[in-house]
Amino acid sequence: xxxxxxxxxxxxxxxxxxxxxxxxxxxxxxxxxxxxxxxxxxxxxxxxxxxxxxxxxxxxxxxxxxxxxxxxxxxxxxxxxxxxxxxxxxxxxxxxxxxxxxxxxxxxxxxxxxxxxxxxxxxxxxxxxxxxxxxxxxxxxxxxxxxxxxxxxxxxxxxxxxxxxxxxxxxxxxxxxxxxxxxxxxxxxxxxxxxxxxxxxxxxxxxxxxxxxxxxxxxxxxxxxxxxxxxxxxxxxxxxxxxxxxxxxxxxxxxxxxxxxxxxxxxxxxxxxxxxxxxxxxxxxxxxxxxxxxxxxxxxxxxxxxxxxxxxxxxxxxxxxxxxxxxxxxxxxxxxxxxxxxxxxxxxxxxxxxxxxxxxxxxxxxxxxxxxxxxxxxxxxxxxxxxxxxxxxxxxxxxxxxxxxxxxxxxxxxxxxxxxxxxxxxxxxxxxxxxxxxxxxxxxxxxxxxxxxxxxxxxxxxxxxxxxxxxxxxxxxxxxxxxxxxxxxxxxxxxxxxxxxxxxxxxxxxxxxxxxxxxxxxxxxxxxxxxxxxxxxxxxxxxxxxxxxxxxxxxxxxxxxxxxxxxxxxxxxxxxxxxxxxxxxxxxxxxxxxxxxxxxxxx
Length: 603
Hints:
six-stranded parallel sheet; single chain; alpha/beta; 13 strands
């Protein structure tokens, strides 16, 4: 009887596991529930039930069964590892780290706990530990794409960009028939100062289409697409915005004014939110004509939903960033599909017709000065700066500069944007000004390895540690903005310019010196400063950058006048002209629609 019982349990386990592997966790859960009624403490049944419930999003119940499995078999590493993955998914990073540490201790030859540990340590900001765990995972599973990609992500967080690109590239080549690791690779390319814009664009066109490989469900389930809308060029358009960032996120402060100010007699606004709501979400939601939360919705179901909405234009706001749904957009859900704001390059994904930019971030080549073609992600240039900044209503009043102290330069850009080229350039500029100090603040600087490498790079150009102040990130946005009182002049990073960071510095009365580059990522600063009427702070090369920064720091009277009037200058500029931006944006959407209708664009 005991043998028969064990045989039955084994069969239930195999059947439930097969259902789980086939993407049917609900059926697996039903099988396991019946079996657990007879053997409630069985470790394997509880472990598999935890996995099924995790897939179903029933996290408290999943945790209960994982803990049961661990209590019954504490030396079985996969139980600890799967429990760690649940904790990781629910944001309990310190607990997840401990679970992975236990899994690694009881199964030292398994790479999976190292991969989980790497992810948990990235989230905790312990980048040195993340890199160590990532390297151990790759050593145990040399060709495993997840191990390679996790190490790549850890290296990005630690500021080791060139090495990170190598591991991200290895991950996608180890998974040639998949697309899951493509976004991490393509996004990381923009931080590598050794790559030319041509190489980065070529890689997007080569690898971008692979996201379709991650399309969940049979292609036949969605079929082809045919427009069910009328080709009337001047009728009211139904516009859909797809984003994971309708929340407290930098992208929201740029897109919210457009959503709010759309001319409702000419445009109907529908928002599709693929993210976690927070305190900012209800305000944005209230400004849409229709709102749908699509997080967790499968690709096939989301394609069906968006097609049923009969959109005229879909504006995709993520690109290859976390929360993006490019695999859905690639199946074609609207006649005109546009990518904007969230990503600084083409996506390389099929069926995206255009990318919204401006003539400074993406200057027209000879013979490419018109906006009348669509397809293959054509550049559609707005007749103004490509973004409009809406400052926070609770932003502190700018602090008056103290002209008696030595000049304080600074940058609050993210650590992975702070390239070695940026640090060397900043170090040269600061070292030129007697007594000047460089203030850097970002969350990566909480890590000892990042701080050590940062100071070493600055020392290469003669800026000693005594003239450098390294600050970790502040907790709240208001506190972050108040920190601008610690600097007189902001220095933009290169080759990946800041966007939100530059706008915030200007709003807080801190002028920004930028260096012009050859690609969109290194021309955003020029576009922003042109919009606020400060072309004299745009440098064409490294030497000019150093000269502009040093001259501004040396003329304290000029600096004081500039700082005192900077917020009002910005408020009156095109960079904060919400009505003008919305009109230009609507003109672009209408122009694209006219092209699709076959009546031509209006520039």
